Amino acid sequence: MRFLLLVLVLVGFTLASEELTLDLGLKKRKKTLVEIKEFRQALSELLKDEYREIAPGIKVKKDCRVERGVASWYGGRFHGRKTANGEMYDLFKFTAASRTLPLGTYVLVRNEENGRVVTVRINDRGPYVDGRIIDLSQAAAYKLGMMLNGVAMVQVIPLRCLAPDSLTRYYDSIILDIANTY
Question: Which end of the chain has fewer CB within 10 Å, C or N?
Fold first, then answer.
């Protein structure tokens, strides 16, 4: 991808010269200023940032939906019960319940109050309390630092939406967390 962008930029600089001739095998002709201007516009559209920053160091694709709202956690009394996808709930695993996200989706949950993040796998439906967007396992809530309050304002970001540099920044944490979802 970077190589392609570099080639496009170099071609753009080359086309900026009015003396450039383009050999298409048929005949040589000089580029007009209008053609050069159109090419520069097309190039700038290609190079436009296709990500938006939602938090310091976290960029997501512009067309992805990031949820922001209140998270809660559920623990002991549900431990060992069946979840919506058929597996047993384990309060020591990094899993979560969501009303809207597909089962099996991996999401990065960021606590807006302290900046901590955890990667969880959606394996259940809920929360069933109005105003909440995600129910986290006890282990995930502990990692986010929300055990005492029981709730926290969070951002829920599907991993497929993260920009490459954001994935790189949180790579080690994401890998370790995913390993702890089963």
Answer: N
Please state the domain extents for the chain: 2-48, 58-179
Superfamily of domain 58-179 in CATH is: RlpA-like domain (2.40.40.10)
Inter-residue contact 81 to 88 (CB < 8 Å)? yes
Strands 58-61 and 51-55: antiparallel
Closest listed residue to residue 169, CA positions, set 119, 120, 111: 119
Indicate the average pLDDT of the chain. Answer: 85
- Burial code of 130-152, b = ≥16 C-beta within 10 A, e = fewer? eebbbbbbbbbbbbbebeeeeeb
Rounded to an integer, what distance in angstroms lies between the CA atom of residue 135 and that of residue 45? 40
In the block, tokens 């296709």 appear at: 50
pLDDT one-digit tens code per residue, 154-182: 999 999 999 999 999 999 999 999 999 99
Q: What is the pLDDT of residues 85-127, one digit of tens each?
A: 999 999 999 999 999 999 999 999 999 999 999 999 999 999 9
| Strand, helix or coil for residue 109 | strand
d(CA 59, CA 163): 5
